[in-house]
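Hi support team,

I'm opening this ticket because the web form for multi-chain structure prediction keeps timing out on my end. I have pasted the exact lines I submitted so you can reproduce it. The total is 801 residues across two entries, so I didn't expect it to be a heavy job. Is there a limit I'm missing, or should I split the entries? Thanks in advance, R.K.
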Amino acid sequence: METCNVLLAGVGGHGVLALSRILAEGALTAGFDVRKSEVHGMSQRGGSVVSEVRYGDRVASPLIPAGGVDVLLSLELLEALRHLPRARPDALVLVNDQRITPAPTGAGPVVAYPADARRRLEAARPDARVIPAHGIAIDLGESRVANVVMLGAFSVLRPEIGPGTWEEMIRLAFRPSLREVNLAAFARGRALLATGPAGATPAP
Amino acid sequence: MTTRILLSGNEAIAEGALEAGAHFATAYPGTPSTEILETLARRGGMRTEWAPNEKVALESACGASLGGARVLVAMKHVGVNVAADPLFSAAYAGVNGGLVLVSADDPAMHSSQNEQDNRHFARAAKIPMLEPSDSQEAKDFTVRAFEISERFDTPVMLRVTTRICHGMSPVEADRDATWPRAPMRPYERDFRKHVLLPANARRRHRFVEQRMRELEELATEDRELNRIFWGDRTVGVITSGVAFQYVREALPGASVLKLGMPHPLPRALVREFAAGVDELYVVEELDPFLEEQVRALGLPAVGKEIFPATGELDPDLVARGLRGEDDAPEPIGAGVVSTPDLPPRPPVLCAGCGHRGVFYTFSKLELVVTGDIGCYTLGALPPLEAMDSCLCMGASVGMAHGMEIALREAGDARRVVGVIGDSTFMHSGITGLINIVYNGGGSTVVVLDNGTTAMTGHQGHPGTGVTASGARGGRVDIAALCRAIGVRRVREVDPYDLGALESALEEELAVDEPSVIICRAVCRLVDRTPIAPSVRLEIECPGCGTCFELGCPALDERDGAAVIDPEACCGCGLCVQVCPFCGLHVEGRTFEAAPVP
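Hello R.K., no limit was hit. The queue was backed up. Here is the completed structure from your submission:
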């Protein structure tokens, strides 16, 4: 298989690094060569967090070549816009509809959170999938599982790795008390795209 | 059983140390090296320690090696500066048990104050260096490094970079195996080797030069370390480390000389390779380390004319350089895109962080602040902007003293304060404070004691009394330590009490003798228990914006007014204290001025 380049983006505390680890482990289990890269250090302090996962028959570089992102998976709208320039024109853009305002700095020229973030995203990528992963996670009673809702949606759109593999990875990744809620999150993410309309969910 | 598992470079180095039967590992935490020791501590099977700094870590390692143990010592690139003193002499003394020093460099400075290229250290100290290009090699080369160390009587540097340390790739490893520890090598006193008096050191230097010649033979002959991949002979690339992967991707057909052991440079192999290709390129991150040595052989290599000497490389930068495109934007870090129309999202001090009020008060009092390395370096950024300098570990204390000398000389009345974290204070702040006491300085130093090494992911340090393995060790009391070295004015102040902070600073800055203010508040990421119930807004906020000057992520702005995020707010009460309209309230906390000691 041609290398699949996944860029995962989000905000510190979102579980981007946990999700990218599951993704990479799943790809390895499914028999692919895998490389993953990220930067630690500031991930828990509310900053932008990015992780890159590449899988395919043979992968060399841990970094995705410029403009070579095949899947942009963002856990936040603004972060999706931020990394959109790295995505190929035909990339799969999968975004959690959550908005998290960066902490106000109170000094210097302030660039406001774009009120039309979702519209801008959908104007740039009409086939972007903006899904309510955060809302589903809240609904499941555990806001931290939005990342696994996203994995469920991803698993429908990139079927080369089967749901059984992902479920196994989820069982391995979480301690027993969090397994069931994460498996439920995965199932909800899958259901969202398996039964939903083919295109983007309608803007509010 | 050997299986194919996904490991980060740091985890793979730990795996290699276990496989090599190492007895002891020591480190000071520093991104991107930290997880090496953390993994070893978690896996068990050898003694692991956090040292107070890298110099002590390497000295412990040298002692353990002398005593016959195999030992791994890990640090970030700037940590090797701290450890340079023992390193250069350990190169002469050599080893008994194998000694491997991991230098984790940070090109692009994802979490560092400079992007120095530590390959120069291996050359300057005259020790061999191995450079893995993925996790598999990180494990395998660690094992090899121990063998080379013992066979050639030398410390060995294993040089890695952020993309190796924090990159993951498959590794053939047996994680269930219980690796036997290497047999202890007997210790025998050897005055001529280990006591570096001039007469002995002169003899050892001659040994070192001979050793490097023998190591060059190994580098030339060992195909596992250094190998040629013949391909298209029109283009030949010499490369090492993660840059090898970028070359494979950008130039899949080219001939490549991959240097897993770039120092000492296998000159015969380089000549053989150069003779076999039409055009010779050197692709390496940061300095022209290999390129200059290749050119010194009289070979016309192309390198830094077309590839950047700053930041990281990536497959695209390699391809652009070869195509002669010089329109590449100044690299800031691989994958970093410029989006000026979007609000930036830099890391911030957490909601309820004990450092926030201290920097707010520095800013209010318009102090000159010499800062240091840690989460609290974020206090330099808007809106707090309360830091004048951040140089290296411990520099806040030394620089506060020097600034006071200079400002006094200039007749400048501005007041100076040094600010340093608890772990950094243990690392190298204490010596600066001894200097102030000894030389009759009058500086005020604020120690931000959050009870952990927060920036690197919450490791213990001597002030916490919790060791790398999680066991209870001895605990060094910072206040008692300061008093013991002769600081008479040592006081503790609640960092959530702005009035107390301000009066303590005013008082200590007014006194012309050394003083230490310790601000103790456990890191919010360690103890997430709310300090008090979430702050409530009890008036219609007029939107003066004063509370935004705290830069608290629990405070949001909506149509000019303050909004509190009850999930993020932990009731630290700083915003309550700064609100000029008394519109904010927090239950169960009262604020009074601190008593004068």
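A quick check on our side: The mean pLDDT of chain B is 94. Let us know if the file doesn't open in your viewer.
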